[in-house]
Amino acid sequence: MTEPYDLITMGRIGVDLYPLQTGVPLAQVETFGKFLGGSATNVAVAAARLGRRSAVISRTGSDPFGDYVHQALRDFGVDDRWVTAVDAYPTPVTFCEIFPPDDFPLYFYRRPKAPDLVIHPEELDRDAIAAARIFWVTGTGLCEEPSRTATLAALEARAKAGTTVFDLDWRPMFWGGAGGASGDGGAAGAAVMADARPYYEAALRHATVAVGNVDEAEVATGLRDPWACARALLDMGVELAVIKQGPKGVLAVHRDGRTAEVPPTPVEVVNGLGAGDSFGGALCHGLLAGWELAPVMRYANAAGAIVASRLACSSAMPTADEVDAFLAAR
């Protein structure tokens, strides 16, 4: 490797099979579109679409969907050298239902085990991880072994060099639970979050940036007020806490005292899935560019809004020209 990557992400990868009809239950859908998917993968794609040199650390099955994933990554300009095959498990697929503006149920097919949870610590290119300008990991990577140990080992190898982002990425079904947070998942949701919290705390000790919505921040902090969550995340070791608040916009709080509260960018929502990943790729782009907090958040909000106005995730990620034009029209 002659030059460090702008961004290396580590985590979920797979195939999204999204209905081409909206407002229709999955049982009645007749046609689907096939897209590259997985949160960490979408963030790498989003950054690549904005001109950044990105790569993914993940695993697929040894099957045609795995072949598709590699081809799609290359088509998007994302380096796939650290995406390897697992013979024992199939490449995951994810279905969704589309009920705009705010109901997009997801159905994950990741059993008996997803290959992206079979990343072993000894397989990591620790030199490349340490050298990357931004390294991005997700909460899903902590839900099972050996991915949990590999994720924490990668963070340790990183040693807070450059910018290290922990995407709180809370998917309770991957931890054996139901319900998104204590606020809407009742005692079961709170219990599963309590099981996950020590691993989130361990990851945050190695991160410089934490990003997530209020439900996800609650997993790490036990709190739900956005400002309280941000302060708690700073106390847990990060330099920058970014709390996404949906229709209330986004809050960013830096350890040095800088803050930014940016309202959302209104759009006609087609599919809200993938907007957060677009936000993440644009966040990385702005941090790499050295922008101030408020411009970074406005840009990331705009990138997320563009994807929310489109059907797909990965293929919907905007270019820099598209984000610039979108902001100029507001």
Describe this structure as you would to a colleague:
The chain is an alpha/beta fold. 37% of the residues lie in helices and 21% in strands. The chain contains ten helices and 13 strands. The protein has a nine-stranded mixed β-sheet, with helices on both faces. α4 (147-158) links the parallel β8 (134-138) and β9 (163-167). The termini are far apart.
Low-confidence stretches: 179-186
Radius of gyration: 18 Å
Average per-residue pLDDT, rounded, comes to: 94
The SSE string, one letter per element, is EEEHEHEEEHEHEHEHHEEEHHH
Structural class based on helices, strands and sheet pairing: alpha/beta
Helix share of residues? 25-40%
Give the assembly state of these chains. Answer: single chain
The dominant shape is globular
Largest beta-sheet characterization: 9 strands, mixed
Distance from first to last alpha carbon:
41 Å
Number of helices: 10
- Strand tally, please? 13
Beta content? 15-25%
User: Strand order, biggest sheet?
Assistant: 5-4-1-8-9-10-11-12-13
